[in-house]
Design brief:
Layout lengths: L4 H11 L8 E2 L2 H7 L2 E6 L9 H10 L3 H6 L1 E4 L3 H12 L4 E6 L4 H9 L3 E5 L3 H15 L2 E2 L6 H17 L5 E5 L4 H13 L4 E7 L4 H8 L23 H8 L2 E5 L1 H15 L5 H12 L1 H4 L3 E6 L12
Parallel strand pairs: 2-10, 3-4, 3-6, 4-5, 7-8, 7-10, 8-9
Antiparallel strand pairs: 1-2
Helix pairs in contact: 1-8, 3-5, 3-8, 5-6, 8-9, 9-11, 12-13
Protein backbone atom coordinates (compact mmCIF):
# COMPACT_ATOMS: atom_id res chain seq x y z
CA UNK A 1 0.00 0.00 0.00
CA UNK A 2 1.13 3.51 -0.79
CA UNK A 3 0.70 6.26 1.81
CA UNK A 4 -0.20 9.27 -0.31
CA UNK A 5 -0.25 12.96 0.50
CA UNK A 6 -4.08 12.87 0.34
CA UNK A 7 -4.27 9.97 2.81
CA UNK A 8 -2.10 11.89 5.30
CA UNK A 9 -4.23 15.04 4.91
CA UNK A 10 -7.43 13.01 5.47
CA UNK A 11 -5.84 11.35 8.51
CA UNK A 12 -4.98 14.71 10.01
CA UNK A 13 -8.54 15.97 9.60
CA UNK A 14 -10.04 12.70 10.91
CA UNK A 15 -8.11 12.62 14.19
CA UNK A 16 -8.00 16.38 14.82
CA UNK A 17 -11.00 16.49 17.21
CA UNK A 18 -9.55 13.69 19.35
CA UNK A 19 -5.85 14.54 19.76
CA UNK A 20 -3.88 17.56 20.93
CA UNK A 21 -1.89 19.71 18.56
CA UNK A 22 1.19 19.58 20.76
CA UNK A 23 3.50 22.56 21.34
CA UNK A 24 6.88 23.05 19.67
CA UNK A 25 9.58 24.27 22.03
CA UNK A 26 13.22 25.23 21.87
CA UNK A 27 16.11 25.82 24.24
CA UNK A 28 18.82 28.40 23.63
CA UNK A 29 21.21 26.46 25.82
CA UNK A 30 20.66 23.11 24.10
CA UNK A 31 21.06 24.89 20.74
CA UNK A 32 24.45 26.18 21.90
CA UNK A 33 25.54 22.73 23.11
CA UNK A 34 24.44 21.11 19.84
CA UNK A 35 25.56 23.90 17.52
CA UNK A 36 22.22 23.69 15.69
CA UNK A 37 18.75 25.22 15.94
CA UNK A 38 16.40 22.61 17.40
CA UNK A 39 12.60 22.56 17.40
CA UNK A 40 11.23 19.97 19.83
CA UNK A 41 7.78 18.62 18.95
CA UNK A 42 6.47 17.81 22.44
CA UNK A 43 4.41 14.64 22.12
CA UNK A 44 4.96 14.15 25.86
CA UNK A 45 2.03 16.62 26.08
CA UNK A 46 -0.17 14.45 23.86
CA UNK A 47 -3.25 12.79 25.41
CA UNK A 48 -2.03 9.79 27.48
CA UNK A 49 1.47 11.21 27.22
CA UNK A 50 2.78 9.93 23.87
CA UNK A 51 2.48 10.19 20.07
CA UNK A 52 0.81 6.76 19.96
CA UNK A 53 -2.56 8.38 20.63
CA UNK A 54 -2.50 9.57 17.00
CA UNK A 55 -2.15 6.15 15.37
CA UNK A 56 -4.54 4.39 17.76
CA UNK A 57 -7.20 7.06 17.16
CA UNK A 58 -6.82 6.90 13.38
CA UNK A 59 -7.18 3.11 13.32
CA UNK A 60 -10.20 3.05 15.67
CA UNK A 61 -12.04 5.78 13.75
CA UNK A 62 -11.97 3.60 10.63
CA UNK A 63 -13.66 0.56 12.15
CA UNK A 64 -17.09 -0.37 10.83
CA UNK A 65 -20.16 -0.27 13.11
CA UNK A 66 -20.09 -4.06 13.42
CA UNK A 67 -16.39 -4.14 14.30
CA UNK A 68 -16.92 -1.49 16.98
CA UNK A 69 -19.41 -3.72 18.77
CA UNK A 70 -16.72 -6.34 19.40
CA UNK A 71 -14.06 -3.87 20.52
CA UNK A 72 -10.32 -3.80 19.84
CA UNK A 73 -7.35 -5.75 21.17
CA UNK A 74 -3.58 -5.36 21.13
CA UNK A 75 -0.42 -6.43 22.92
CA UNK A 76 1.87 -3.72 24.23
CA UNK A 77 4.21 -3.15 27.14
CA UNK A 78 3.31 0.47 27.47
CA UNK A 79 2.39 3.48 25.42
CA UNK A 80 0.29 1.86 22.70
CA UNK A 81 -1.62 -0.01 25.41
CA UNK A 82 -2.57 3.31 26.99
CA UNK A 83 -3.27 4.96 23.64
CA UNK A 84 -5.61 2.20 22.51
CA UNK A 85 -7.45 2.11 25.84
CA UNK A 86 -8.03 5.88 25.81
CA UNK A 87 -8.86 6.13 22.09
CA UNK A 88 -11.36 3.25 22.52
CA UNK A 89 -12.89 4.89 25.59
CA UNK A 90 -13.40 8.17 23.72
CA UNK A 91 -15.29 6.23 21.02
CA UNK A 92 -17.28 4.21 23.55
CA UNK A 93 -15.82 0.85 22.59
CA UNK A 94 -14.12 -1.95 24.55
CA UNK A 95 -10.33 -2.42 24.58
CA UNK A 96 -8.49 -5.62 25.57
CA UNK A 97 -4.79 -5.17 26.18
CA UNK A 98 -2.30 -8.01 26.63
CA UNK A 99 0.66 -6.75 28.69
CA UNK A 100 3.80 -8.60 29.79
CA UNK A 101 3.93 -9.15 33.54
CA UNK A 102 7.11 -7.04 33.75
CA UNK A 103 5.56 -3.95 32.09
CA UNK A 104 5.86 -0.86 34.33
CA UNK A 105 3.08 -0.78 36.96
CA UNK A 106 2.39 2.86 36.10
CA UNK A 107 1.51 1.80 32.54
CA UNK A 108 -0.76 -1.08 33.64
CA UNK A 109 -2.55 1.26 36.05
CA UNK A 110 -2.99 3.86 33.31
CA UNK A 111 -4.53 1.31 30.91
CA UNK A 112 -7.01 0.25 33.59
CA UNK A 113 -7.70 3.90 34.40
CA UNK A 114 -8.68 4.47 30.75
CA UNK A 115 -11.13 1.58 31.02
CA UNK A 116 -9.03 -1.04 29.23
CA UNK A 117 -9.07 -4.73 30.24
CA UNK A 118 -5.48 -5.74 31.08
CA UNK A 119 -4.59 -9.39 30.51
CA UNK A 120 -1.09 -10.21 31.78
CA UNK A 121 1.21 -12.82 30.27
CA UNK A 122 4.81 -13.95 30.67
CA UNK A 123 7.21 -11.46 29.04
CA UNK A 124 7.96 -13.14 25.71
CA UNK A 125 6.70 -12.15 22.28
CA UNK A 126 5.36 -15.68 21.79
CA UNK A 127 3.28 -15.47 25.00
CA UNK A 128 2.00 -12.04 24.04
CA UNK A 129 0.84 -13.28 20.64
CA UNK A 130 -0.70 -16.52 21.96
CA UNK A 131 -2.60 -14.69 24.70
CA UNK A 132 -3.78 -12.08 22.21
CA UNK A 133 -5.04 -14.77 19.80
CA UNK A 134 -7.03 -16.35 22.63
CA UNK A 135 -8.66 -13.01 23.46
CA UNK A 136 -9.49 -12.29 19.81
CA UNK A 137 -10.99 -15.77 19.36
CA UNK A 138 -13.03 -15.44 22.55
CA UNK A 139 -14.33 -11.90 22.10
CA UNK A 140 -14.24 -11.26 18.35
CA UNK A 141 -12.27 -8.06 19.05
CA UNK A 142 -10.34 -6.51 16.15
CA UNK A 143 -6.56 -6.78 16.56
CA UNK A 144 -4.77 -3.46 16.09
CA UNK A 145 -1.00 -3.73 15.79
CA UNK A 146 0.98 -1.15 17.80
CA UNK A 147 3.02 -0.07 14.76
CA UNK A 148 2.90 -2.51 11.84
CA UNK A 149 -0.39 -1.18 10.48
CA UNK A 150 -0.79 1.47 7.76
CA UNK A 151 -3.55 3.36 9.57
CA UNK A 152 -1.39 3.51 12.70
CA UNK A 153 1.65 4.69 10.68
CA UNK A 154 -0.47 7.39 9.01
CA UNK A 155 -1.69 8.62 12.38
CA UNK A 156 1.86 8.79 13.75
CA UNK A 157 2.91 10.84 10.71
CA UNK A 158 0.64 13.71 11.76
CA UNK A 159 3.09 14.84 14.48
CA UNK A 160 5.72 15.61 11.81
CA UNK A 161 3.04 17.22 9.60
CA UNK A 162 2.26 19.70 12.38
CA UNK A 163 5.98 20.36 12.88
CA UNK A 164 6.47 20.99 9.15
CA UNK A 165 3.41 23.29 9.01
CA UNK A 166 5.11 25.58 11.52
CA UNK A 167 8.71 25.13 10.34
CA UNK A 168 8.82 24.33 6.64
CA UNK A 169 12.57 24.87 6.31
CA UNK A 170 13.94 22.05 8.51
CA UNK A 171 17.11 20.37 7.29
CA UNK A 172 16.29 17.19 9.19
CA UNK A 173 13.82 15.60 11.60
CA UNK A 174 15.08 13.16 14.23
CA UNK A 175 12.88 10.53 15.91
CA UNK A 176 13.60 7.46 18.02
CA UNK A 177 13.02 4.03 16.41
CA UNK A 178 11.54 0.89 18.02
CA UNK A 179 8.97 -0.86 15.84
CA UNK A 180 9.21 1.99 13.34
CA UNK A 181 5.66 3.40 13.35
CA UNK A 182 6.74 6.92 14.29
CA UNK A 183 9.81 6.82 12.06
CA UNK A 184 7.88 5.51 9.02
CA UNK A 185 5.06 8.02 9.55
CA UNK A 186 7.56 10.88 9.93
CA UNK A 187 9.40 9.76 6.79
CA UNK A 188 6.16 9.80 4.77
CA UNK A 189 5.17 13.21 6.15
CA UNK A 190 8.56 14.70 5.22
CA UNK A 191 8.52 13.00 1.81
CA UNK A 192 5.16 14.56 0.91
CA UNK A 193 5.23 17.91 2.70
CA UNK A 194 8.92 18.84 2.94
CA UNK A 195 10.96 16.72 0.52
CA UNK A 196 14.19 18.58 1.30
CA UNK A 197 13.99 17.53 4.96
CA UNK A 198 15.99 14.41 5.78
CA UNK A 199 14.63 11.94 8.32
CA UNK A 200 17.07 10.38 10.79
CA UNK A 201 16.53 8.02 13.70
CA UNK A 202 18.27 7.43 16.99
CA UNK A 203 18.46 3.89 18.32
CA UNK A 204 19.96 2.38 21.49
CA UNK A 205 23.16 0.39 20.90
CA UNK A 206 21.68 -2.39 23.06
CA UNK A 207 18.60 -2.70 20.83
CA UNK A 208 19.94 -1.87 17.39
CA UNK A 209 17.87 -4.20 15.20
CA UNK A 210 16.68 -1.33 12.96
CA UNK A 211 20.28 -0.27 12.30
CA UNK A 212 21.21 -3.90 11.56
CA UNK A 213 18.17 -4.27 9.29
CA UNK A 214 19.20 -1.23 7.22
CA UNK A 215 22.77 -2.55 6.92
CA UNK A 216 21.55 -5.96 5.81
CA UNK A 217 18.65 -4.78 3.64
CA UNK A 218 16.19 -7.12 5.37
CA UNK A 219 14.49 -7.28 8.78
CA UNK A 220 16.84 -8.50 11.49
CA UNK A 221 14.63 -9.51 14.45
CA UNK A 222 15.30 -8.00 17.86
CA UNK A 223 16.93 -10.47 20.27
CA UNK A 224 17.37 -9.86 23.98
CA UNK A 225 17.38 -6.03 23.86
CA UNK A 226 19.16 -4.32 26.77
CA UNK A 227 18.37 -0.64 27.14
CA UNK A 228 16.82 1.88 29.49
CA UNK A 229 14.68 3.05 26.55
CA UNK A 230 11.82 0.64 27.28
CA UNK A 231 9.68 1.97 24.42
CA UNK A 232 12.21 0.81 21.81
CA UNK A 233 12.42 -2.93 22.43
CA UNK A 234 10.43 -4.18 19.43
CA UNK A 235 11.52 -5.30 15.97
CA UNK A 236 10.61 -3.51 12.75
CA UNK A 237 7.54 -4.79 10.91
CA UNK A 238 7.03 -5.74 7.26
CA UNK A 239 5.04 -2.52 6.74
CA UNK A 240 7.38 -0.13 8.58
CA UNK A 241 10.68 -1.51 7.26
CA UNK A 242 10.20 -0.88 3.49
CA UNK A 243 9.22 2.76 4.18
CA UNK A 244 12.24 3.24 6.45
CA UNK A 245 14.55 1.55 3.97
CA UNK A 246 13.42 3.86 1.18
CA UNK A 247 12.94 7.18 2.99
CA UNK A 248 15.19 7.32 6.06
CA UNK A 249 18.62 8.87 5.66
CA UNK A 250 20.36 7.02 8.50
CA UNK A 251 20.03 5.46 11.94
CA UNK A 252 22.48 6.66 14.59
CA UNK A 253 23.19 4.30 17.48
CA UNK A 254 23.70 5.69 20.97
CA UNK A 255 25.11 4.33 24.22
CA UNK A 256 23.07 4.15 27.44
CA UNK A 257 25.10 6.93 29.06
CA UNK A 258 24.39 9.18 26.05
CA UNK A 259 20.63 8.50 26.36
CA UNK A 260 20.68 9.32 30.08
CA UNK A 261 22.72 12.51 29.51
CA UNK A 262 20.29 13.70 26.81
CA UNK A 263 17.29 12.88 29.00
CA UNK A 264 18.80 14.81 31.90
CA UNK A 265 19.52 17.78 29.64
CA UNK A 266 15.86 17.96 28.55
CA UNK A 267 14.63 17.64 32.16
CA UNK A 268 17.07 20.21 33.56
CA UNK A 269 17.16 22.77 30.79
CA UNK A 270 13.64 22.60 29.38
CA UNK A 271 11.78 21.46 32.52
CA UNK A 272 10.11 18.79 30.38
CA UNK A 273 9.28 15.31 31.63
CA UNK A 274 10.32 12.91 28.88
CA UNK A 275 10.85 9.16 29.01
CA UNK A 276 14.23 7.63 28.06
CA UNK A 277 12.99 6.61 24.58
CA UNK A 278 12.26 10.28 23.84
CA UNK A 279 15.81 11.31 24.67
CA UNK A 280 17.31 8.87 22.15
CA UNK A 281 16.67 11.26 19.24
CA UNK A 282 18.48 14.15 20.95
CA UNK A 283 21.29 11.79 21.99
CA UNK A 284 21.73 10.81 18.32
CA UNK A 285 21.91 14.44 17.21
CA UNK A 286 24.43 15.34 19.93
CA UNK A 287 26.57 12.36 18.94
CA UNK A 288 26.76 13.53 15.31
CA UNK A 289 26.54 17.28 15.95
CA UNK A 290 29.55 18.13 13.76
CA UNK A 291 27.70 16.73 10.77
CA UNK A 292 24.63 18.94 11.35
CA UNK A 293 26.38 22.11 12.52
CA UNK A 294 24.39 25.26 11.83
CA UNK A 295 21.33 23.39 10.55
CA UNK A 296 17.67 23.61 11.55
CA UNK A 297 16.57 20.36 13.14
CA UNK A 298 13.19 19.06 14.30
CA UNK A 299 13.14 16.46 17.09
CA UNK A 300 10.04 14.52 17.99
CA UNK A 301 9.93 13.98 21.74
CA UNK A 302 7.94 10.78 21.59
CA UNK A 303 6.49 10.62 25.10
CA UNK A 304 6.66 11.40 28.78
CA UNK A 305 5.41 8.24 30.50
CA UNK A 306 8.30 7.66 32.86
CA UNK A 307 8.29 5.80 36.15
CA UNK A 308 9.37 8.55 38.56
CA UNK A 309 10.63 6.08 41.17
CA UNK A 310 13.10 4.69 38.61
CA UNK A 311 14.78 7.79 37.21
CA UNK A 312 18.29 7.04 35.93
CA UNK A 313 19.77 10.19 37.47
Amino acid sequence: MKITKEILQETQQRIKPFVHRTPIMSSQLINEIAGVEIYFKCENFQKMGAFKMRGATNAILQLSETEREFGVATHSSGNFAQALALAAKLQGIKAYVVMPSNAPEIKKTAVKGYGGDVIECIPTLEARETTLNDIVNKTGAIFLHPYNDYQVIEGQGTAAMELIEEHDDLDAIFTPVGGGGLLAGTAMAAHHFSPKTKVIAGEPMGADDAWQSLQKGEIVPQTNPQTIADGLLTSLGDKTFPIIKEHVEEIIRVEEKEIIAAMRLIWERMKLIVEPSSAVALAALLKEKKKYKGQKIGIILSGGNVELSKLPF
